[in-house]
C-alpha cells in the first residue's frame, strides 16, 4: 500500500490499524457473505490485494492519534466518512465477514461448484489464475486474523483447475475455540475406546488394548476392557489444520501427557469425543450420553470381523431418532479376512439403504471424498464410511482430515439471541470451590457473576444462584454462549440441591414452569406385548431421566384407539403395539421436570421402546378431544400437572 501524499500525515496507517478500524466502524447490515455470485467472487479473488487494502483504507477514518491539521484534510475526511463505504467488496472484509458468519471457520471452493458457494453459473480458473487467487486468500486471511490452508487441488480435463481452501480464525482465547461434540457408539468390543486413544494420543495400538487404557475412568473398566461410564476426551487442530495430539511431543518430557489446557492453548478447533458404553447392561448410560450431551455428530464403530450386530443396531436407531448425522468407522480391517470384510460391507450397505435409515453410503478413500462428505454430511442424507486399522494406521489420516474439515452444527440448533438456558448433565463437588455443574448452553449467553434460576427441585421450585466462575475444556473463561460445553461453579448451592436433569435459566419477567404431565407424539419401535394406560417406562429427554406412566392414549387424528387388532385389545381398552403411532399423555412418577414442546424423547425398558417428540405441556383437558373414559383415569393422589415456580432466595 502506497503512503499518503498529504504532508500533514507523518506515517501511513498500518494494516492492523486498518482492519481494527474497519471492524470498529462497520455498519451492521443483513449482508450474507455466502450470497456473492461465483463471477463476483472470482473478480474479488483475482483483484490485487494492494488495491483491496487501499480501497479499505479509503473507506475508513484515520487512527485517532492522527488528527488532520488543515481544513482541506478535514473536508476530505468528512467526505470519506459520509460516502458509502464499499466494505463488502474487499477480500479482507469478505473473509472477516465470512469467518464471523460461519462461527470461526469455513471452506472456500475456488473454481469448483460445491455446497458452500451458490454456483448457479459455474466459473473456471486457469492454473495461473488459481495461483493468484490462493495467494490472495492466504494474504487476506492473515490480515483478518485467520489462517488459510489449501486442502486439495484438482485439474479438469479441459485444463482448468480448482482448489479447496480451509480458512480458520486464530482464537484469542478458549472462548473463541471452534467446538464439535461427537458421540462414539457401537457394539461391545467394536474398538471405540481404542480408536479414541489412537486419535487423541497420537500413537498406534499394539493389538491388545494399549491405546485405550488412558481413557478409562474406573479400575473395573481397565480389568474388563469395557467402558461402563460416559468418558470425555478431546482432540485439537491448530489454525492451519494440523492435529494437536494429547501426547508428548518434541521438546517435552518423554511420556508426559498434554493437559486439556495445553491442548486448548495450541488449538483453534477442538473435537470433544463422548465415549459411550457398548454393552447392553449399560444402555441407560449410553442413551443418557446421546440425549444429555447433545452431540453434533455420531461416530458408529463397527468391527469388520463381526459386522453390525448386538447393540450396534440399537445405537444406530437412537441416533436416527435424535436426527444426529452418522459417520461409520469399520475397525480391525488388518485382522479380518477379505471375504468376511466383504460380507460386513454388504450388510452395512443394506441396513443404511433400508427404509428405516434411508442414507446413501459413501466409502471414503481419498481427500476429495473426504471434503465432499464432510461438507454435505449435515445437509444431505449421506453416511461416510471409513475403513481403518488402529494397529497399522491405515486411513487414519483420512479420518483426521475429515474431523478437521467437519463444520459446526447448524446455528438454528442453538438460539444465541434468546434468554440464557443451560441444561445440567453432570454434578461435582470440588474442594475449596463448591458445587460445580457441567452441561451445554442451550440458548443465550452468560458471564461470571450473573444471577440465574436453578431448578426444578422435587417440589417444582427454582432457587436463585450466581455463577462464581466458568471453565471451558478446563480453561477459565469470562463467559459462555449458546452451543458451548461449559462448567459453572455456583455460589451458595449445596451438592444435594442439584441433580441431573435440572436447568439454569435467566431471571425474566415470566417465571419458569415445571410440569408433571405432558403430551407427546410417539412411534413404538418394539414391545413384546402391548402398552396401555398405567404402563411405566424410563424416559430420556435432554438430560432428564425419570420413570413415566402412561395416563392417556389417542390416535394422531384425534380419535381414541378403541377396537381390535392393532388399535385395541378387543375390550375397548386403548393400547399401543409395535409399529403403532399414537399420542400419549405421560406423567412423571417422582417429581416435575422442565420440559418444553419440541423436545425429543426416548423411552426404554431393556431395549428402546418409544421415540417421539413433546407436543404440549401442562394440559389438563381430554387428550386430542377423546372422552376421558376412553383414555383411562389417572392414578389417585397425583400432584398438579403444572408448577409455576417462584424464585426462592437461598438461606
TrEMBL record:
Residues covered by region (Disordered): 622-651
GO molecular function, one term: GTP binding
First and last residue of the signal peptide: none
Gene3D superfamilies: P-loop containing nucleotide triphosphate hydrolases, Translation factors
UniProt keywords, alphabetically: GTP-binding, Nucleotide-binding
Alphabetical list of CDD domains matching this protein: GTPBP1_like, GTPBP_II, GTPBP_III
InterPro entries (UniProt xref): EF-Tu_GTPase (IPR050055), EFTu-like_2 (IPR004161), GTPBP1-like (IPR035531), P-loop_NTPase (IPR027417), T_Tr_GTP-bd_dom (IPR000795), Transl_B-barrel_sf (IPR009000), Transl_elong_EF1A/Init_IF2_C (IPR009001)
Domain Tr-type G span(s) in chain numbering: 177-412
Pfam families according to UniProt: GTP_EFTU, GTP_EFTU_D2
Domain of life of the native organism: Eukaryota
Similarity comment: Belongs to the TRAFAC class translation factor GTPase superfamily. Classic translation factor GTPase family. EF-Tu/EF-1A subfamily.
Protein name: Probable GTP-binding protein 1
Source organism (scientific name): Ustilago trichophora
Amino acid at each position: 500500500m502506497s503512503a499518503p501524499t498529504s504532508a500533514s500525515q507523518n506515517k501511513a496507517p498500518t494494516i492492523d490499524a486498518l482492519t481494527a478500524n474497519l471492524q470498529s466502524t462497520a455498519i451492521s447490515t443483513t449482508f450474507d457473505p455466502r450470497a456473492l455470485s461465483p463471477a463476483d467472487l472470482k473478480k474479488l479473488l483475482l483483484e490485487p490485494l494492494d488495491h483491496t487494502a487501499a480501497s479499505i483504507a479509503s473507506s475508513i477514518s484515520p487512527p485517532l492519534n492522527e488528527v488532520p491539521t488543515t481544513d482541506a484534510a478535514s473536508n476530505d475526511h468528512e467526505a470519506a466518512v459520509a460516502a458509502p463505504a464499499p466494505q463488502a467488496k474487499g477480500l479482507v472484509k469478505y473473509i472477516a465477514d465470512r469467518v464471523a458468519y460461519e462461527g470461526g471457520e469455513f471452506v472456500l471452493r475456488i473454481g469448483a461448484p460445491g455446497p458452500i458457494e451458490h454456483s448457479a453459473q459455474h466459473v473456471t480458473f486457469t492454473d495461473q489464475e488459481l495461483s493468484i487467487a490462493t495467494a490472495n486468500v492466504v494474504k487476506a486471511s492473515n490480515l483478518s486474523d485467520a489462517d488459510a490452508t489449501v486442502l486439495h487441488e484438482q485439474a479438469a480435463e479441459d485444463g482448468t483447475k480448482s482448489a479447496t481452501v480451509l480458512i480458520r480464525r486464530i482464537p484469542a482465547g478458549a472462548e473463541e475455540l471452534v467446538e464439535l461434540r461427537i458421540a462414539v457408539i457401537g457394539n461391545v468390543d467394536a474398538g471405540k475406546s481404542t480408536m479414541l486413544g489412537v486419535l487423541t494420543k497420537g500413537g498406534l495400538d499394539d493389538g491388545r488394548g494399549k491405546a485405550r487404557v488412558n481413557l478409562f475412568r474406573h479400575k473395573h473398566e481397565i480389568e474388563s476392557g469395557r467402558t461402563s461410564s460416559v468418558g470425555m476426551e478431546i482432540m485439537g487442530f491448530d489454525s492451519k489444520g494440523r492435529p494437536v495430539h494429547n501426547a508428548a511431543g518434541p521438546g517435552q518430557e518423554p511420556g508426559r501427557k498434554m493437559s486439556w489446557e495445553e491442548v486448548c492453548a495450541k488449538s483453534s478447533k477442538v473435537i470433544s469425543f463422548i465415549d459411550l458404553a457398548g454393552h447392553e447392561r449399560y444402555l441407560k448410560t449410553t442413551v443418557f450420553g446421546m440425549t444429555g450431551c447433545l452431540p453434533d455428530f455420531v461416530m458408529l464403530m463397527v468391527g469388520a470381523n463381526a459386522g453390525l450386530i448386538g447393540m450396534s443396531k440399537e445405537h444406530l436407531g437412537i441416533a436416527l431418532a435424535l436426527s444426529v448425522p452418522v459417520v461409520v468407522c469399520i475397525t480391525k480391517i488388518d485382522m479380518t479376512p477379505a471375504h468376511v470384510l466383504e460380507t460386513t460391507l454388504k450388510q452395512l450397505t443394506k441396513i443404511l439403504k433400508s427404509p428405516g435409515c434411508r442414507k446413501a453410503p459413501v466409502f471414503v478413500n481419498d481427500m476429495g471424498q473426504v471434503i465432499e462428505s464432510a461438507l454435505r454430511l449435515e445437509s444431505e442424507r449421506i453416511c461416510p464410511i471409513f475403513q481403518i486399522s488402529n494397529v497399522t494406521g491405515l486411513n487414519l489420516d483420512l479420518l483426521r482430515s475429515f474431523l478437521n474439515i467437519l463444520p459446526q452444527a447448524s446455528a438454528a440448533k442453538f438460539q444465541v439471541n434468546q434468554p440464557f438456558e443451560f441444561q445440567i448433565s453432570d454434578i461435582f463437588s470440588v474442594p475449596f470451590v463448591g458445587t460445580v455443574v457441567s452441561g451445554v448452553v442451550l440458548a443465550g449467553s452468560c458471564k461470571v457473576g450473573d444471577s440465574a434460576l436453578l431448578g426444578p427441585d422435587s417440589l417444582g421450585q427454582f432457587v436463585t444462584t450466581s455463577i462464581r466462575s466458568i471453565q471451558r475444556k478446563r480453561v477459565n473463561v469470562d463467559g459462555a454462549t449458546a452451543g458451548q460445553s461449559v462448567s459453572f461453579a455456583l455460589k451458595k448451592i449445596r451438592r444435594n440441591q442439584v441433580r441431573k436433569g435440572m436447568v439454569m435459566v435467566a431471571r425474566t419477567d415470566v417465571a419458569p414452569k415445571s410440569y408433571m404431565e405432558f403430551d407427546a407424539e410417539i412411534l413404538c419401535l418394539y414391545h413384546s406385548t402391548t402398552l396401555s394406560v398405567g404402563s411405566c417406562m424410563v424416559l430420556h429427554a435432554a438430560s432428564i431421566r425419570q420413570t413415566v406412566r402412561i395416563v392417556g392414549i389417542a390416535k394422531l387424528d384425534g380419535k381414541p384407539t378403541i377396537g381390535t387388532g392393532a388399535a385395541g385389545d378387543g375390550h375397548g381398552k386403548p393400547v399401543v403395539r409395535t409399529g403403532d403411532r399414537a399420542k400419549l399423555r405421560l406423567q412423571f412418577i417422582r417429581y416435575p421436570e422442565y420440559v418444553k414442546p419440541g423436545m425429543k424423547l426416548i423411552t426404554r425398558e431393556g431395549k428402546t421402546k418409544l421415540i417421539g417428540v413433546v407436543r404440549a405441556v401442562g394440559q389438563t383437558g381430554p387428550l386430542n378431544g377423546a372422552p376421558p373414559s376412553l383414555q383411562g383415569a389417572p392414578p389417585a393422589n397425583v400432584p398438579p400437572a403444572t408448577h409455576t415456580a417462584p424464585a426462592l432466595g437461598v438461606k
